[in-house]
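Weekly structure sync, notes
Attendees: PL, DS, HV (note-taker this week)

Item 1: AAA family ATPase
DS walked through the input record. Source organism listed as Brevibacillus composti. Sequence as pasted into the shared doc:
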Amino acid sequence: MIKINKLEIENVKRVKAVKMEPTANGLTIVGGKNSQGKTSVLDAIAWGLGGNKYRPSQPAREGSAVPPYLHIVLSNGLIVERKGKNSDLKIIDPNGQKGGQQLLDSFVEELAIDLPKFMNASAKEKTAILLRIIGVGDRLHELERQEQELYNRRHAIGQIADQKAKFAKEQPYFPDAPKEPISASELIRQQQEILARNGENQRKRQRLAQIQVAYANQGEEVRRLKALLAEAETKYAQLGEDLEIAQKDTLDLIDESTAELEANIRQIDEINRKVRANLDKDKAEADANDYRVQYEALTAEITAIRRQKTELLTNANLPLPGLSVEDGELVYNGQRWDNMSGSEQLRVATAIVRRLKPNCGFILLDKLEQMDLETLREFGAWLEQEGLQAIATRVSTGEECSIIIEDGYVVGQEGVQLQQPPGEIDPGPTWGTGSKTTWKAGEF
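Item 1 (cont.): predicted structure, written out as tokens:
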């Protein structure tokens, strides 16, 4: 990874003259009070390495007749300079060959020198950057599209199921009603069959009466016609046998009642109304159950897709342990971006940004006063563990600061001049170690 080995800044914004050697791995803190030039150091580095789009609107220090001067030595041997009236860019590689901004852009990550651009991005934009660098963006987008489509279908199905269930609940139900509507013609047919059977019974009863009358008359005829006794007795005996048979035929006859059928015929409309109401209720309940089954099936599909999303992110090469994506937002140790502490946001942002261009081994951080000293040490240790260089500012003059800026100078370097007057030879600077190094004016 390419890092910043040495840095000289003169007459840029509030900086009068600053020389420093940032710590290769870990945190280099530029401390000082407000309005002393701390942020100007980061702005100068961004301008030097990021190009003219990071050029300050007023790059020259107010009141200085000497133009801005930048001299940055990178760990790959490149030397980056901006000097002269127009602050033109000059890049020299280890072999003495010149290069331009395109060479710097090949390894300098834009967000590494402009971290607020990432910090202030929307949740969707942050997530898109992470998914792009771990290579699962397209697949995750497709899974999310499928999940949304299934969710919409399930939502619609659920609404219909609720409507059906509510409709079924509101329907009246008559437990005493038959399962199917009654047919008037069927009731009439049953009535006619009963009437026919009853008519046959009546015919038999009439025959019995006729035989009884004939028998009685014949007795009279026997008494009246003594002369015809033999014939009458024979006929009488025959009639007696017929009478016995007729009596046996009618002995167990029971007439069926048509009262229930007649009542059903009279009440057929009411009965059928109840039947139809019961059928409507049964159908509504069946429909509601069918939609519930569809709802549960879609829920299972959504669960399966979410499991695929989880597995996709679990198996992805994420830039930070505990970092993931849920519902299109970054989540770190279970917390979404707006619930993360400031230090957690910086750690997540730094981890993601360094993955964008792995060769860019440094990052600029402004206003680290949001971190307490313990958190600051933890963050610095994490940077060292990751082999990452961070140059940061902090409103402080404490021991945690690598250098302290006061009135545009590093404390201990007051009055130093970095650009040599014409005709003088620069014997070369004496570089510090990155931790409150003291340089004396005029000593190089």
